[in-house]
Please model this.
Amino acid sequence: MKAGIPVIEMVHSSEHGLQFELQSMEYIDAHRHNRISHPHKHDYFVIIWMKSGAAKHMVDFQDFAVEKSTIFFLTPGQIHQVQTETPPNGYVLSFQHDFFCTTESQRELLLQTGLFYNCSQFQPHIVLPEQALVLERLIGLMQAEINQVEYMHYESLRGLLQLFLIQCSRFWGIAETAGSISSRPAWLTRQFLRLLETNYRTTTKVSDYAALLVVTPNHLNETVKKITGLPASEHIKKRVVLEAKRLAALENSSAKEIAHTLGFDDEAHFSKYFKNNTGLTYSQYRQQFQGKDFTAKTF
Model:
């Protein structure tokens, strides 16, 4: 039987029917360490703000060294693990899609700002002191609201979360690169990345995404490269290879099973594609990852 990678669910609804949670990193390290002692993924959105301390955060097989105030936005399904070198200090904000997305503007904050659903170019963000002041105020308001449970409690928390994400999108969202969140190139790029995240297993050609977006393949490639630094074709490759890595390293799937899951014609085609894009054979990559040590202090 395949062990598979653990999927962490939110706390039981009887304990926290909100589908929303805000905890300190210290609390989670003390009370939930056993749940997160190995690489795992969540079925909800997670924002990890490491305010201070030294750590290594693995997200989808990329290691990020954390030495200063840093924030991570994790989309459901992303594999991650924090290994701390000093006691953690910061916040973990978790929420379900259905808790937050009651309006179209809230959906846009999740789908179209680049904070989430960015697996092909995931990166953390350094939190500057002036940014930290803004986010700390909002977290303080959330904590007060959680503790008092007054009239329209859920609506208040949802509104504060929305303000938090709006501020984060202003600091680090794709709109910053595009100049304007409503610009045509930024809009087209966001739509492409949204489609890619939901269709990468069945749609792997730029021409297919271009047809869905009613543009030419060349225009789509050039526009996405202008906004993100990579053409659409590279984003597709990165997303397919990432999923192959997830399946190869942590799901104990055979090359044949992965080929079928990701829509390759056969195992040989998948194996060639994997090696061309990673520099390793399927077997080599799997052995390399399985040889890693996950027994260090983790969060």
Observations:
- The domain at 184-290 is CATH 1.10.10.60 (Arc Repressor Mutant, subunit A).
- DSSP finds 13 helices and ten strands in the chain.
